[in-house]
Amino acid sequence: MSDAERPPDEVRSEVSVQKGHAPPRAGVTRASHAQEEPSARDPAHLLARIRQWESAFKRRVPPWSSRALALLLIVFAILLPFFFTQTSGFLNATIISLAYVVMALGLNIVVGFA
Fold first, then answer.
1. Segment 67-111, tens digit of pLDDT
2. Helix or strand or coil: residue 44?
3. Cβ atoms 81, 91 nearer than 8 A
4. Which of these, 1, 19, 18, lies nearest to 10 by C-alpha position?
5. pTM check: above 0.85
């Protein structure tokens, strides 16, 4: 359909113009879409949608993926220092931040027992 044949109130998106055709809209506009789903802004609806995405993600990921990710992170942490020189500040900052993490975990455990 050329622009001359198109009704003046029909709007085409940039994507449809680039592809050369517009997808069928079936009378859905931004205003009607906003009026149809007031519950989409409800926190309970958002939580349900997040749980649905989580369950779909868990169905598609193999059960051994968490162990593989942990192993990959450990190997990455072991190999990372070899890519930096001793004079770079990265190793020094990493060691100090790791020390703070260990102290924070220790404090958490001590306060948890109190």
1. 999 999 999 989 988 998 888 888 889 889 999 999 999 999 999
2. helix
3. yes
4. 1
5. no
Report how far Cα 16 is from the mean position of its chain's Cα atoms: 27
Question: How wide is the angle at C-alpha 68 spanned by C-alphas 62 and 66, nearest 5°?
Answer: 60
Helices (H) and strands (E) counted in the chain, each on its own, are 5, 0
DSSP conformation class of 6 = S
**For the chain, how many residues are written?**
114
Among 19, 18, 22, CA closest to 6: 22
Residue 2, Ramachandran bin (φ over 0: left; ψ between -120 and 50: alpha; else beta): beta
Q: Are 5 and 11 in contact (CB under 8 A)?
A: no
Please tell me the distance from the alpha carbon of residue 46 to that of residue 53, in angstroms, as a whole number: 11
DSSP 82: G
Q: How far apart are CA 57 and CA 68, in angstroms?
A: 16
